[in-house]
Write a structure and sequence with these properties.
Strand order of the largest sheet: 16-17-18-19-21-20
Distance between the termini: 80 Å
Shape: globular
Radius of gyration: 30 Å
Number of strands: 24
Largest sheet: 6 strands, mixed
Helix content: 25-40%
Structural class: alpha+beta
């Protein structure tokens, strides 16, 4: 099927959607004040070195310091003198690598997520459409998605030859898009990347610390660069200035795709016309219906993503094993798309419905692997565990769609659960007893009354189901109880105050 790239631009945000046929595969979002920082290079200052974590926190001028692990540091000879072309060498002890107050050039590998600062690396890499420049190595790498050995060797030899011609000592990695590229294309890409790196080195000595040395391309340009393949049929843009910038970029760097860049001028909004708005809305729900009548339940936590499969309304037409197998097979094909659409990453645990036949488990696992092949993020899949679970990981470089569009509920603090009215009433009773016990014994027990402020459903329960308990408690502590409804209070919220000067 033909892919389409939709770019929706407004004054406050830019959104990009990748469609395969009529199915939305990916959604990227950048608010005007919150663009992705991944790929940006900064001159930062080491704030703290933490030997116990083999890591350091580096101030790069963002809201929170970035996190730099020892494994993400390469040694560069005479770094402080600015000689950036030293041989790369892995380093072990963080205390031998960094000191507090040291200035260091770092690149953002992962955007800040939730309360975590950006993940940093000194293993700088600058990407183009076909290649990635790795200035602190002399290694030539080839994307693993290029599977033919002859093509891998051809590209390796071509890059090596052009590197000698350009007298470059830096490393390069051929991206998947380089498959089949000719000598001129590779040579031009290498030359552009080398010029960009020279500019980075000049900027490094011209910025104050902390400061930006290099900024990645805007989100929509970067996605066009990475996703403009032979399968891409159209790039539809609903914003005239952005259309001009994308068209100019494509003409210069992706001339073969010049004809696919089009200005959308339809009456209906672009994302509404192609069903992207509805797909985004569904992607914020935990339950995902399957065509058979079964469904997935996807839950994202701080530590991992869990996916549960249920047969739902699907009853099948033969045996229970066949019904379970068909549901699991459909789920295995649907899960990778949901991961891409929601941009879920980290550890992912899938609880398939138990299958008795080993061949069915192999087919489900293979279907999952095949469906993940279209994902540009790095994915690793384990087999079925002894508990019948499949564990996989997906590289996470930015916040998920839900994290970008939503925030934790102020009522439940993100747990998805709130206290019942009965629980809140019990907490109020305990608070009254505790307060009464803590007051002076010679205080006049008859003076004052307790004012209980809570939500309407809590007050209703105190006046109805728990009225006898409340009356008994009032006699026990020797004070009247008065209630006040607070419309702004949520479940589990209440205030208890002793109003002095009131006698029974």
């Amino acid at each position: 099927m033909t892919e389409q790239l939709l770019i929706n631009v407004s004054d406050f945000e830019t959104r990009v959607a990748l469609l395969d046929g009529n199915s939305v595969q990916e959604v990227h979002l950048a608010r005007a004040n919150n663009y992705s920082l991944t790929g940006n290079i900064y001159l930062g200052r080491v704030e703290r070195v933490i030997p116990g974590m083999q890591a350091a926190f580096v101030d790069v001028g963002l809201e929170r310091p970035g996190f730099l692990h020892a494994s993400d540091i390469v040694k560069r000879r005479d770094l402080d003198a600015g000689q950036e072309n030293g041989a790369a060498e892995p380093l072990q002890d963080i205390r031998s690598l960094l000191r507090t107050g040291q200035e260091i050039m770092v690149q953002i590998a992962k955007d800040p997520i939730s309360s975590k600062g950006a993940r940093l690396t000194t293993q700088v890499a600058i990407a183009s459409r076909y290649l990635v420049l790795t200035p602190f190595t002399d290694h030539i790498g080839i994307s693993q998605r290029i599977e033919q050995d002859e093509e891998r060797e051809r590209l390796r030899a071509l890059i090596d030859c052009e590197r000698e011609k350009q007298q470059s000592a830096t490393g390069f990695i051929a991206r998947t898009a380089a498959d089949g590229s000719d000598t001129e294309t590779i040579a031009r890409s290498m030359h552009i990347l080398s010029r960009m790196w020279d500019r980075v080195l000049r900027n490094r000595h011209g910025v104050s610390c902390p400061g930006v040395v290099y900024q990645e391309l805007p989100m929509h340009i970067r996605i066009v660069r990475d996703l403009a393949t032979a399968r891409l049929g159209d790039i539809l843009i609903d914003h005239d200035p952005t259309f001009g910038r994308v068209r100019d970029f494509v003409k210069e760097f992706l001339p073969d795709a010049s004809d696919v860049v089009k200005l959308y001028s339809g009456q209906r909004p672009l994302f509404e016309r192609y069903g992207v708005e509805e797909e985004i809305e569904r992607a914020l729900q935990s339950q995902v219906p399957l065509k058979s009548g079964g469904y997935l339940v996807i839950e994202q936590t701080e530590a991992m993503v869990t996916i549960d499969i249920n047969t739902g309304k699907f009853l099948g037409s033969s045996t229970l094993e066949e019904t379970v197998f068909r549901t699991n097979l459909e789920a295995a094909q649907a899960i990778p798309r949901q991961l891409r659409l929601r941009n879920l990453g980290g550890i992912i645990v899938i609880d398939f419905i138990d299958m008795m036949e080993e061949d069915h488990r192999r087919q489900v696992l293979r279907a999952l692997e095949r469906a993940c092949e279209q994902d540009s993020a790095r994915v690793q899949i384990e087999g079925f565990s002894s508990l019948g679970l499949v564990q996989m990981s997906r590289k996470r470089t930015r916040e998920s769609l839900a994290q970008q569009l939503c925030e934790p509920c102020e009522r439940c603090a993100g747990t998805g659960l709130t206290r019942t009215a009965a629980t809140t009433c019990a907490e109020i009773f305990r608070a009254i007893i505790q307060d009464a016990d803590g007051r002076s014994l010679d205080a006049d027990p008859g003076s004052g009354e307790y004012l209980i402020r809570a939500s309407e459903n809590v007050v209703d329960r105190l006046l109805d189901e728990d009225s006898d308990t409340l009356g008994h408690l009032a006699r026990l502590v020797g004070r009247e109880m008065r209630m006040q409804v607070e419309p702004g209070y949520g479940p589990g919220q209440f205030d208890l105050a002793l109003i002095q000067g009131v006698r029974r």
